C-alpha cells in the first residue's frame, strides 16, 4: 500500500518518521530501508531519530538512483552490482570511445572541439556527456529509445553525434535504467510474489523525484508498504498555478485572469518543479488502496505575528495579498532581513554579529538549530574559519562546514593528488619538503617533524634547487646539467658523510665532480639515509606514473603508491577513503570493459 504524508516543514515529517520507524519489523535483524533525496537529509533524519529515541541504528539510507538499481537487481536478477551506465562508468566508456581517431571521424563536431586539446579536455568532455546522458535516462528516455532504433527528433545539430554515441554505448547489450524500466515495472505490477523485497520502505523529505522513480514506487506499493513523506509548502491544490511570465506568453489570457492562475507569485515563479512533482504524486494516491494525509495547521492556529510567518502562511493558504493588504510589522520584527555587503568577508562578519545578537536575545535558541546556506561553500569557507575562529574574550559560536570537498577537508588527500603529478613535477626542494610535512608521509619515511629544519639547512647548503638530475632537465627541454639538482646535492651530502673530517668543510678538495659538505656522523647519517631513500622512492614512482597503462592497472598501482608512501597509523581513516577510491576505480574499469 502507498501512503503519502505531506507537510510544510521537516519537523512534522520527522516526528512522523520517528513513530513509523519505531514500529518493529517482522525480522528484528533487518535494517529499516529509507530513501532520501540527499546525504544531508539522511544525516538530519539520523540525528533527529537519535535525539527523539536516544539512538538511531539498523537504518539503511539510500539515494533514489541507488535504490532503484538495487531493486532492479533484486527483482530481475543477473545484473552487475554497478551499472555500466552510472555516470562514473559511463565517463570512462565515453573516454575510451573519444580516444579512437576513427570514431571522431564520425563526429566532426566533437573532433573540432577536441582538436589541439590535451587528455584532460577529452576526459572533461566525456564526463560532461556522461552527465547529460544520465539526465536523459531520467527525463528523456523516449529520445534514447528512438536513437537506439535509428530515429531522430530534429533537435538541432548536436542530436546527430549524441544519437551516434548512444547507439555505440548500447550496441553491446549493457542494461541501463531506461531499458530495464519496462521489465521492472512489468514484474512490479504483476501479481506474482517477488522474494527479497524489504518489508517496508520509507521515502523521506523529498520535494521532487523523476517520473520513473514515482512509477517504481507505485508498482512496489503493490507488494510492500511504501510510505512517502514529502515537503509541500502549500496545503491547497497548486498544480494549476502559473508564473506571470508564463501567463504573459499566452495571448488568450488577460491581466484580470492572472490573480486566479498565479496563486502566490513566489510559489509560482520558484516552484515549477515541485508543482509538476506533486501533480504526479497526487495522481498515484488516486488509485485504489492508496491513502493521502496532509499535516497542516488550521486557520485558527496560524498567526501572522511576523513577516516570515505571514509569508509562510500566505504560501500555505495559496493566498496573494492585494496592494492595500499591507502587513503591520512589529517594531522589533527581525524575522526576515536583507543585508547588502561589499565582500564575502563582510557578509560573514555580518552573519556572525547577527547570530550573536539572536543568541543574546533568545536564550532558548541554540547553535544546533541554525543552518546557514551558501551557493559556494568553498568560496566562503576561508572567511568562515577566520571570522568564527575562537578568540580570547569574545563568545564562541560552534560551527561545522558541510558539503566541502574531501580535498579541502583532508590535507592528506590533497597531498596524494599532488603526488599523482610526480611525472610532471620539477622536484623542487620546497615541494619535496612539503610532502614530508604530512605526518603520514614523514612517518613512513622514518623522518620526525623536528628533523625538517635540519633537512632544510642541509639542502640549502648542498645547493638543491630543483630537478632530479640532468636527464630530467633534458626531458623538460633544458640543458643536461646536474647543477643544483637533487642528484648533485645528495652526492655532496653523502660524500660529506663518507669522507674523513679533514676532507670536509670550506677547504675540502674536489672529489670526482663534487665538493663534500661537512662530515655527518651517527644519527645524522641515518637521517641522511632516510632522506636519500625517500627521494629515490619519489623518483621511482615518477617513472612509474609516466607509463601509460590500462585503467584497472592504474587502480592497482595507485594502491601501491598509497601503501608505499603513507603510514596508516597517522591517517587510517583518510587512507581507507583513498583505498576505497582505488577499489571503485577498479570496479569502474571492469564495468566499462577497459
From TrEMBL:
Gene Ontology molecular function: ATP binding; DNA binding; exodeoxyribonuclease V activity; helicase activity
Species for this entry: Stutzerimonas stutzeri (Pseudomonas stutzeri)
This protein's UniProt keywords: ATP-binding, DNA damage, DNA repair, DNA-binding, Exonuclease, Helicase, Hydrolase, Nuclease, Nucleotide-binding
InterPro entries linked to this entry: DExx_box_DNA_helicase_dom_sf (IPR013986), P-loop_NTPase (IPR027417), RecC (IPR006697)
GO biological process, one term: DNA recombination
Keyword Hydrolase assigned: yes
Keyword Cytoplasm: no
GO CC, any one term: exodeoxyribonuclease V complex
Name recorded for this polypeptide: Exodeoxyribonuclease V subunit gamma
SUPFAM superfamilies cross-referenced by the UniProt entry: P-loop containing nucleoside triphosphate hydrolases
Amino acid at each position: 500500500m502507498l501512503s503519502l504524508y505531506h507537510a510544510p516543514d521537516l519537523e512534522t515529517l520527522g516526528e512522523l518518521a520517528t513513530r513509523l520507524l519505531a514500529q518493529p519489523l517482522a525480522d528484528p535483524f533487518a535494517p529499516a530501508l529509507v530513501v532520501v533525496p540527499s546525504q544531508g537529509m539522511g544525516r538530519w533524519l539520523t540525528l533527529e531519530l537519535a535525539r527523539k529515541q536516544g539512538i538511531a541504528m539498523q537504518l539503511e539510507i539510500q539515494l533514489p538512483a541507488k535504490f532503484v538499481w538495487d531493486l532492479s537487481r533484486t527483482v530481475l536478477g543477473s545484473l552487475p552490482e554497478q551499472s555500466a551506465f552510472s555516470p562514473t562508468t559511463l565517463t570512462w566508456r565515453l573516454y575510451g570511445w573519444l580516444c579512437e581517431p576513427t570514431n571522431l571521424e564520425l563526429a566532426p563536431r566533437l573532433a573540432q572541439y577536441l582538436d589541439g586539446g590535451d587528455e584532460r579536455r577529452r576526459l572533461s568532455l566525456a564526463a560532461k556527456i556522461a552527465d547529460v546522458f544520465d539526465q536523459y535516462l531520467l527525463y528523456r528516455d523516449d529520445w534514447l529509445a528512438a536513437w537506439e532504433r535509428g530515429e531522430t527528433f530534429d533537435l538541432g545539430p548536436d542530436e546527430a553525434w549524441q544519437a551516434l554515441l548512444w547507439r555505440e554505448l548500447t550496441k553491446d547489450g549493457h542494461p541501463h535504467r531506461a531499458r530495464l524500466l519496462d521489465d521492472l515495472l512489468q514484474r512490479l505490477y504483476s501479481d506474482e510474489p517477488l522474494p527479497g523485497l524489504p518489508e517496508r520502505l520509507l521515502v523521506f523529505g523529498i520535494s521532487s523525484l523523476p517520473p520513473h522513480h514515482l512509477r517504481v514506487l507505485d508498482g512496489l506499493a503493490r507488494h510492500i508498504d511504501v510510505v512517502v513523506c514529502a515537503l509541500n509548502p502549500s496545503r491547497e491544490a497548486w498544480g494549476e498555478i502559473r508564473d506571470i511570465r508564463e501567463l504573459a506568453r499566452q495571448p488568450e489570457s488577460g491581466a484580470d485572469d492572472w490573480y486566479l492562475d498565479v496563486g502566490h507569485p513566489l510559489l509560482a515563479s520558484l516552484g515549477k518543479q515541485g508543482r509538476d512533482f506533486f501533480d504526479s504524486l497526487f495522481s498515484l494516491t488516486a488509485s485504489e488502496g492508496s491513502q493521502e494525509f496532509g499535516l497542516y495547521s488550521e486557520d485558527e492556529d496560524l498567526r501572522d505575528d511576523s513577516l516570515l510567518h505571514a509569508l509562510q502562511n500566505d504560501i500555505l493558504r495559496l493566498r496573494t495579498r492585494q496592494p492595500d493588504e499591507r502587513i503591520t510589522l512589529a517594531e522589533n520584527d527581525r524575522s526576515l532581513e536583507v543585508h547588502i555587503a561589499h565582500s564575502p568577508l563582510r557578509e560573514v562578519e555580518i552573519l556572525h554579529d547577527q547570530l550573536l545578537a539572536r543568541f543574546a536575545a533568545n536564550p532558548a535558541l541554540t547553535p544546533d538549530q541554525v543552518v546557514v546556506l551558501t551557493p559556494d561553500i568553498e568560496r566562503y569557507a576561508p572567511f568562515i574559519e577566520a571570522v568564527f575562529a575562537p578568540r580570547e574574550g569574545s563568545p564562541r559560536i560552534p560551527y561545522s562546514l558541510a558539503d566541502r570537498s574531501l580535498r579541502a577537508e583532508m590535507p592528506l588527500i590533497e597531498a596524494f593528488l599532488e603526488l599523482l603529478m610526480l611525472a610532471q613535477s620539477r622536484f623542487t626542494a620546497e615541494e619535496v619538503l612539503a610532502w614530508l610535512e604530512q605526518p603520514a608521509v614523514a612517518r613512513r619515511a622514518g623522518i620526525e617533524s623536528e628533523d625538517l629544519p635540519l633537512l632544510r639547512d642541509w639542502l640549502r647548503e648542498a645547493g638543491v634547487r630543483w630537478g632530479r638530475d640532468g636527464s630530467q632537465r633534458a626531458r623538460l627541454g633544458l640543458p643536461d646539467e646536474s647543477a643544483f639538482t637533487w642528484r648533485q646535492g645528495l652526492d655532496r651530502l653523502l660524500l660529506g658523510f663518507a669522507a674523513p673530517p679533514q676532507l670536509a668543510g670550506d677547504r675540502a678538495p674536489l672529489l670526482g665532480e663534487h665538493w663534500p659538505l661537512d662530515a655527518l656522523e651517527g644519527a645524522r647519517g641515518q637521517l641522511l639515509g632516510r632522506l636519500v631513500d625517500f627521494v629515490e622512492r619519489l623518483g621511482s614512482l615518477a617513472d612509474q606514473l609516466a607509463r601509460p597503462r590500462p585503467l584497472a592497472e592504474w587502480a592497482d598501482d595507485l594502491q601501491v603508491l598509497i601503501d608505499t608512501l603513507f603510514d596508516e597509523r597517522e591517517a587510517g581513516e583518510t587512507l581507507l577513503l583513498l583505498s576505497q577510491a582505488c577499489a571503485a576505480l577498479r570496479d569502474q574499469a571492469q564495468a566499462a570493459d577497459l
